[in-house]
Structure formats: C-alpha cells, structure tokens
Amino acid sequence: MKKNEYFIYLNQKENDQAAKETSLEIKARFKNNPDFIFILFTPGYNPKKLSQVFNLTLKNPNLFAIQAPLLIYKDKIIEKGLISCCLNKKDAKIKSLFIGSQNSEKIEYILKKYFREIRRKNIKFISFISSQMNSLSFLKGIRFSLGKLINFSGAGYKNKYSSQENFILNKGIGNGLVSLILNGISTNTLYLQNFIPFGKPFNITRLNPKQQIIYEINNKPAVEIYKYYFEEKFNNFIKNRLFPYYPLGIFTKNYFRLLTIIDILEDGSFLFKGNLRDKTQGNLMTLRDAYPKKDLRKKLEKSEKNDAGIVFMVNSLERQKILGKKAEKEIENIQNIYSPKKEIIGIYSDYYLFPDEETQDINIESGGLLLNVWE
Asked: The whole model's pTM is what?
C-alpha cells in the first residue's frame, strides 16, 4: 500500500466529540469517503451515538467498528480512545459480514451463500467474535462451508467488558460475529508467543472435545498436573486462579500450540478453549519473557523490508497481565522494527484464531500475539 492509500488517527476525547473530530479529519483527508473505515474503540463509548455521528457526518460510509478492552496505537497501549483506520486502495475490495446466530448450520449456510462467487484464494478473512457467540460453532461452520482456509485470522472474547454492543456495522449495532473480507490487499499473518515447556511431557487420556473439558491427564484427574509441580503452593495457585499463566502446550510436528485453561471444575477437570483430541501429548508452559528486540527482528525480517502499510495486531490480555510493564516495551520494539514504513494499530482480546500451516486447520489460543501485515 502507498502512504496515500490509508489514514490512521487516534482520538481520546469523550464520546460525541471523539466521533465528530475523527469524522472531520477523515473528510479533510479524502475528497470523497474512503472505500472502507475501520474503527476501534474502548468501553465507555456509546456505540449507538458513535454510529449516528459517523453516518451523519460522513453520509453513510462503509463502516465497521469493534469494541475492545484495550487498544494498540503505534508503540502505546490505549486504555481509553478511538482509533480510525481508513483504507482507499485502488482495486481493493473490503466487505464486512455480520452473523448473529450461534447455530453452526446457519453459519455454514450464510458463509456458503456469501462466498459462492468469490475466488477464495485471493481473499483474507478476519473474524471478530463477541462473548455471546460460541467460537466452536463458528469454527464448525467455517470448516463445513470453506474447508481448510489458510488465509484466516481472528480475535474473540469469553468475557463481556461492557454492557453495550460490541460492533457497529454501517448503520446497525449488535453482538455476534463480524468478518472482514479483504480482496486486493497483500496480507501476511505472523504468530508470536515465546512460551517454553517445563517439566515432563504428559498425555491427555480422557476428554470431551465438544464440551471442551479435559477429565484426565496421565490417567489421573487433570488438576493433578498442577498439584504435582506447585506442591505446597497449589492451594494458593488455585485460589488466585493462576492457571492462565501456565497454559498447556500441545505438541505438533514442529512447535507447541497453546491450549488455554478457562477454569478448573470442582471434580478437578479443566474447562478449556481450543481444538484437542484424545491421546495428545503436551507440556506445561511458561512465558519466557517479553520478546527482546533482536529476536523480534529475526522473526519479522521478511515483513519489515516490504512496502508501506498497516500492521494490525491482535494481542492477548493474558500476555499483558503476565508481562506487566514489559508489555508496552514489547510493542515499542515491534513498532521500532516496522517504523517508519508501517504503522501499528490493534486490539487486546481473550483469545485469537490463526491458521496452522501444517494442518491448514484453525487454532484457538491466548497468551501470544498475531501480526496481520497489510500492504
């Protein structure tokens, strides 16, 4: 993308004022409305009022907005604010698709109908899933409608961070899931997590993948794996719900895939989010630290040398809690590597979705971060 084909703007004023000033900045930048306007906003802004101001000032733009508990703008974590990202690239087509149903068959039907006349290999598919939506139903609908889709990423929430709606879609607001379909924009998705295994490998010996419950590890109640390693600190570990800090690492051919434990049930079972099968081998994992700049440069070197563009980051709330003050330094290092060619914006989420290059299936994780590079 060329510099004049996109525009990014941060406003941290109150509800109506932020929307008005952002709309005027967009009008000043473009003679006509840009092809697509992507808005990120934190809780505290009224989605209905934002929608009214944007539609009135910009006269019914092609608009999509998502609420997130924290935002990312360049090298900063934003606790309150509104970020606008306008795209106006020649020959690019960007559409949004809202689905409110949690029924996987309904999702499958809508996606099949929508993609019937689109050449799938040319698109980038990004989905945002609110806490009311069942992520497994969505993934099931995706698989049945589109098969194995490597050009996919997404973000989702298991917690509700505001009493208001999550999405603004043109003139409407709502909850459910929204997918962006990008055609004509060069895209690349990079996955970073920096977790390392500790302790001995284990086998998951009994689970219910549909209900997302792990009953046994090594033929013992699942919780015993934490009791074994934390010993006298185990009760404090459970009381303070520290298990997200030590996710399960599921071993694939070349790397560990993180499996997030959402809760530990009374019988010692794990409630988890992700894809899992019986007889799977894994390890407990721990975050080594924030990525140092030299390691980041090695991982990002292929994408940092290309043209101008946008880096849309999906970062993990769990990662931010673990790293503390180092979380912003990590983002600053990423910004320094990409700057001045590319600008970074992004959101924090409870979990993210990304394609497994080996299986071409979709993984659900938290604890790492995704970088969607748009050029």
From this structure: 0.90
